[in-house]
Amino acid sequence: MTPRAPTTTLVTGPVRSGKSRHAEHLVALKHDVLYVATGRRAEDDDAAWAARVRAHQERRPSSWRTLETAELDEAITTAAGPVIVDCLGTWLTAQVDLVGWDDLDHATDHVRQRTASLIESLCRARHPVVVVTNEVGWSLVPLSDSGRFFQDELGRLNAAVAEVAATVHLVVAGRVMDLTQAPIVPRSLPPRTLHA
Question: CA-CA 20 to 30 A from 110: which of 31, 153, 170, 174?
Fold first, then answer.
């Protein structure tokens, strides 16, 4: 039987659809929110990225704390209140960066282990956890091996979190659809039965 993460909400959708704003809205009335930014730190020479990070920070309540880390297990486990994780795509990138993009077999093993650990953390969480992620498989097929790897692994990661999450929201063009009651795709086909 698949474990459940009763406090977890997954918010997914395409880029610039409103996912992060929706995630923030879900815990807007809470004062002790930990905002876990899984992306890289803004570089001094990357003004566009720094502006994007600043825009995210400025719309959050001043009582919320921001933690920049790829160590999601620890952040979720030690949180004293609600957590927003933004986002799984940048977390996945950080995981592959740790082992290197030149050995995708090794990266696959590492990502699967880290995913299993993340799922365990979500299932043990005592506070609301809102996880934001991107749906990257709705666009062009990447030309590079690393691009295809990222797309495939993020799809698997999203499905694994969605399978255990108590609530799943899809945000498209600024509209929210609740997928919580939608059936989960089985992991395998049912066993064949022989007919006489």
Answer: 170
